[in-house]
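Duplicate of #3305? Posting structure anyway:
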């Protein structure tokens, strides 16, 4: 990493970022694959020298929404936090202080409000449903928490909810229908598909990753208009799914945006500018790389579908690979590095990869201290997997701290056939 990028990352994070180089990625991947063989090789939880504390997690899966504790080694479902909801899927949730939990049901047109007590981790059953656009798969709160943005994969639309009421009651302000032509993939891109809304750091804009249309729609939140002020094209057939803003100069505005393409299995990096009075936010394509490291291709590149993208405070970027055909799927880790000594343009550089511990890692998230990554594997033997992140290198340890098998989520199904967690998040 050059001095320049090291400096900007230091500004970004407030502390020095050490070298992110990795000595031997191969070892990491091989050992992980060995440990998580599907055919019953037993899992040895790693002994934990550091105190990795207690974490209260919320986990959504098909038909279940529940609280699970993680003590650094063992996942324990909490008795006071289990909601059975046959036919529904809380594939995304968001917590709002002091005790409000919103959850999508991607199988219907409802956003649900649950009561969640963060002190004891109790989740109260009977939700209050609010009717919006069907097929929402993601929720985001604006910075002031007064608006809730729900992205509908099913309809290619974004619901803007007023979430300012103290009791959590939602009022639908408006529905923004995305506009444009779908991308070239005839299987998935049959229509526009809003997969995620991301609020920019200034609070003025929300950008919507449109998996069906290979577009990133810029919505201007001024005066609750949320009108589409700009449309950024990704590469055709990308299928932009999840992304995030970066502030590489440590300022209040974003400097870059990074997004993972579900269909083409690429990570794309854009620079971001705020100058244009009409567009509001403009993007310039900077760089793109495969979600797979050169040495770790998928068994089946045709079926592979990237999933989550997660950014660390250090600026490191993590992406999940799904449907790879490998025994278990994987998580790739990238850093931004200057192109050359003379050209400080940031480039995406593959740093390391590990097994996700299971199959179909749809989502992953950090513990509050970012020491642990929680992975939600929808299939395979292992459902929830906790991976330790090296605080210096950003490399994930391929031997999990702890694992909860998918039997815990779908008790009626044989091991390995389960329909496991879709969402996991440590909650206040
Ligand atoms: C998937 O399997 C292939 C073939 O065995 C292997 O070369 C590759 O490293 C594996 N990829 C990952 C990400 O584990
Ligand atoms: C790879 O995936 C494609 C698409 O899902 C499937 O049609 C094909 O049979 C798979 N190939 C192998 C060798 O499994």
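Output from current build:
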């Amino acid at each position: 990493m050059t001095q320049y990028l090291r400096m900007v990352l230091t500004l970004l994070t407030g502390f020095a970022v050490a070298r992110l180089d990795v000595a031997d990625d191969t070892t990491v991947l091989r050992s992980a694959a060995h440990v998580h063989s599907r055919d019953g090789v037993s899992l040895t939880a790693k002994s934990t020298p550091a105190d990795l504390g207690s974490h209260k997690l919320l986990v959504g899966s098909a038909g279940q929404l529940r609280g699970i504790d993680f003590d650094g080694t063992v996942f324990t479902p909490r008795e006071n936090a289990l909601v059975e909801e046959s036919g529904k899927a809380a594939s995304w949730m968001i917590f709002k202080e002091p005790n409000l939990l919103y959850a999508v049901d991607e199988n219907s047109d409802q956003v649900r409000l649950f009561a969640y007590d963060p002190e004891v981790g109790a989740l109260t059953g009977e939700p209050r449903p609010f009717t919006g656009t069907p097929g929402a798969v993601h929720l985001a709160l604006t910075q002031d928490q007064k608006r809730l943005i729900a992205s509908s994969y099913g309809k290619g639309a974004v619901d803007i909810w007023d979430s300012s009421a103290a009791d959590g009651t939602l009022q639908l302000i408006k529905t923004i229908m995305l506009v444009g032509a779908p991308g070239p993939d005839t299987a998935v891109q049959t229509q526009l598909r809003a997969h995620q809304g991301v609020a920019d750091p200034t609070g003025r804009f929300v950008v919507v990753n449109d998996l069906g249309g290979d577009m990133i729609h810029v919505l201007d939140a001024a005066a609750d208009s949320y009108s589409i002020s700009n449309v950024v094209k990704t590469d055709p057939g990308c299928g932009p799914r999840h992304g995030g803003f970066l502030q590489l100069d440590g300022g209040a505005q974003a400097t870059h945006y990074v997004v993972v393409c579900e269909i083409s299995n690429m990570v794309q990096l854009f620079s971001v500018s705020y100058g244009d009075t009409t567009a509001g936010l403009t993007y310039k394509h900077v760089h793109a790389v495969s979600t797979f490291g050169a040495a770790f291709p998928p068994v089946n590149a045709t079926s592979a579908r990237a999933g989550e993208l997660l950014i660390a405070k250090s600026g490191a970027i993590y992406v999940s690979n799904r449907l790879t055909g490998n025994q278990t799927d994987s998580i790739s880790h990238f850093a931004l590095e200057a192109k050359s000594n003379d050209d400080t343009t940031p480039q995406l550089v593959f740093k390391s990869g590990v097994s996700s511990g299971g199959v179909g890692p749809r989502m992953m998230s950090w513990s509050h201290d970012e020491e642990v990554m929680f992975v939600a594997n929808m299939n395979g033997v292992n459902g929830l997997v906790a991976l330790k992140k090296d605080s210096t290198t950003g490399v994930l340890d391929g031997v999990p701290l702890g694992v909860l098998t998918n039997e815990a989520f779908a008790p009626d199904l044989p091991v390995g056939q389960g329909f496991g967690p879709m969402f996991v998040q440590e909650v206040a």
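Confirmed duplicate; merging threads. The chain has two helices and 27 strands. Residues 29, 33, 296-299, 326, 330, 353 surround 2-acetamido-2-deoxy-beta-D-glucopyranose (ligand 1) (CB under 6 Å).
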